[in-house]
Amino acid sequence: MTTPPAAAEPTPIVVLVSGSGTNLQALIDAAADPDYGVQIRAVGADRDGIEGLARAERAHIDTFVVKTADHPDRAQWDAALAARISAYDPTFVVCAGFMKIVGPATLAGPPMINTHPALLPSFPGAHGVRDALAHGVRITGATCHYVDDGVDTGAIIDQRAVRIEDDDTEESLHERIKVEERQMLVDVVGRLARTGLPEAPNRKVTTS
Ligand code: GAR
Known about the structure:
Blueprint: E1 11-17, H1 22-31, E2 38-45, H2 51-58, E3 62-65, H3 74-86, E4 92-95, H4 104-107, E5 112-116, H5 128-135, E6 139-146, E7 156-163, H6 170-195
Parallel strand pairs: 1-2, 1-4, 2-3, 4-5
Antiparallel strand pairs: 5-6, 6-7
The structure holds glycinamide ribonucleotide (GAR).
């Protein structure tokens, strides 16, 4: 009888959240399949008491919280976040609804990707859904991109489009975006985990 080849080790990642964590849940569910090739080593947050952390705990995944209020300044918060991430030695980090801009210490660590609820480079920042609705665009969506030192300016990895309906509210539109966004994130994270990241993933995208 021949021994089957050893399965490749899953790629370790850390996921950062600030809220309900439905994107995190999609990754947890996908990672339950060994063929997906991802091990979520830890889930980090910038605040306590969020459903995202509860989802991780229910899945028996390590959690950590690094709050800005617990640090004298932003640079020390950033250094503490970088240290907590690197303790898990992830191949890359996924911001899945993490509502903080990270600084140089975290950016010097493992490559980081983010999911954003708009079609970048349109509507970056904390209110991508609201801003798209207010502008009156008819199509918006979700973008997965590398994190660099700008606000949602890193190289785009993938996007999904969502049509805006006449009666949409910010909430109804965000819910429809999140359906597409979760699938996009699961696809991107699995693909990066199984095929590897490009050598300089944090490059800045030039638009000129
Ligand atoms: C997602 O739509 C994500 O794109 C957004 O927060 C939501 C988190 O949902 N992130 C940003 O707006 C970052 N600028 P979830 O907690 O249910 O995964």
